[in-house]
Amino acid sequence: MNASDFFDHAVTAGYADQPYPRLAGIRRSAAVRTTTGVWLAGRYADVAAGLRDPRLSCDLARGAGYAEYFRSRGIDDRFPLPLNALDPPDHPRIRTAVSAEFLPAAVERMRPAIAAAARTAVDRLAARAPGVVDLVADLAYPLPISLIGGLFGIPEPDWPLLERWSRAFGAVSDPDWLLTGAARTAGAEATRECGEYFGRLVRHRRRGGGDLLSRWVAGMRADRRMSLPELLVNGVFLLMVGHHNTVSLIANGMLALLRAPRRLAQLRADPSLVDVAVDELLRYDSPVQTATRVTACDYPIGETVIPEGSTVMLLLGAANRDPQRYPDPDELRFDRGSGKAHLGFGRGPHACVGGLLARVETAAALRELITRFPVLEQAGPEERRVPSFSLRGLEKLPLRIA
């Protein structure tokens, strides 16, 4: 593969199944300019530094074509950009306003509820044992949707809407040149539907309540840190991201364990290792594969200088498999001692707001699965990958349980 033709290969059959050998080719150079004009960086040191460097802007409106990128997804000039596409001073202002429920102390208070939800979800699987279940449809989606839905005060009958919208959003996570027109249309329609639904929720929450959204609305009216359009856009964004990454982390993680039976046996023998295992699974096969930035000035990566106004994709998946940072990077190991040094959910001021919540939910799900089912195996080679370059997940994972 010629690295400059990377995106031509990223849409071919087989890339989603085996991206890491191709990503290794990107690491051979400090930075690679593709035929699309986008620059790619995949070395751990460069990616980790870039995630913290203010010279790499998250304000994608600086880059060519990004107004159309957002319009094609139903976000036009009437709306502010979501949290992940903002620079200071707007980014810290919005992040402070929305992140309180995702901070360590808040997530710690949620642990009993998360454990109970995981137990209930796995109870439903146990009722079908022995037999074959689809881990994605039967656990990986329902568990985080029940938790984020409860957090936002969304009625349970509406939870299936979240899954439908989430699948549509995930399908348009890639740059436009990698998408079909049908995917863009479905993504824009999901954005419109979810935005209208969320707007109705906000109107109801003006009367007060005990859920996260009610607290956001009360805060908006009390200190005006967020405007109503900002609340709507970021509410929709966090509602989707708040469970989508968890869905993929649960599914990717379970598949990785099934393909590494010694590691699965290690967790069965010592379930206290599950929290450590989740971080290694995040490194090994992260749900989020890229972080896109725009150069605010001429920006050096190694001996290459990337011109101001260029789009740069920081390849988190490539960085997490960099042998300069991780010995035997393609091996799943729970003894690395590097903990959260991986870049699975980013790093720095734009690290995933809900990253800790996703890890705790995934740990609860895996702990229940490995302790409840002595038989837990893949039911044939029929897993189906999400056809995406930027996100890595599974549409289907049949499991035999007993």
How would you describe this structure to a colleague?
It is globular, with a radius of gyration of 21 Å. The protein has a five-stranded mixed sheet. It has a three-stranded antiparallel sheet with strand order 4-12-9. A hairpin with a 5-residue loop joins strand 1 (32-33) and strand 2 (39-41). It is 49% helix and 10% strand. The chain has helices at residues 6-10, 20-26, 44-52, 66-71, 90-98, 104-126, 135-140, 142-152, 159-170, 181-205, 212-223, 228-258, 261-269, 274-284, 316-319, 355-372, and strands at 32-33, 39-41, 56-57, 131-134, 290-295, 299-301, 304-306, 311-315, 376-378, 384-385, 394-396, 398-401. The protein has one domain: Cytochrome P450 (Cytochrome p450), CATH 1.10.630. By secondary structure, it is α+β, with helices and mostly antiparallel strands. Helix 6 runs parallel beside helix 16 (355-372) and helix 8 (142-152) packs across helix 9 (159-170).
Quick structural overview:
This protein is 49% helix and 10% strand. The protein is α+β, with helices and mostly antiparallel strands and 402 residues long.
Which helices and strands occur, and which strands form pairs?
Blueprint: H1 6-10, H2 20-26, E1 32-33, E2 39-41, H3 44-52, E3 56-57, H4 66-71, H5 90-98, H6 104-126, E4 131-134, H7 135-140, H8 142-152, H9 159-170, H10 181-205, H11 212-223, H12 228-258, H13 261-269, H14 274-284, E5 290-295, E6 299-301, E7 304-306, E8 311-315, H15 316-319, H16 355-372, E9 376-378, E10 384-385, E11 394-396, E12 398-401
Parallel strand pairs: 2-8
Antiparallel strand pairs: 1-2, 3-5, 4-12, 5-8, 6-7, 9-12, 10-11
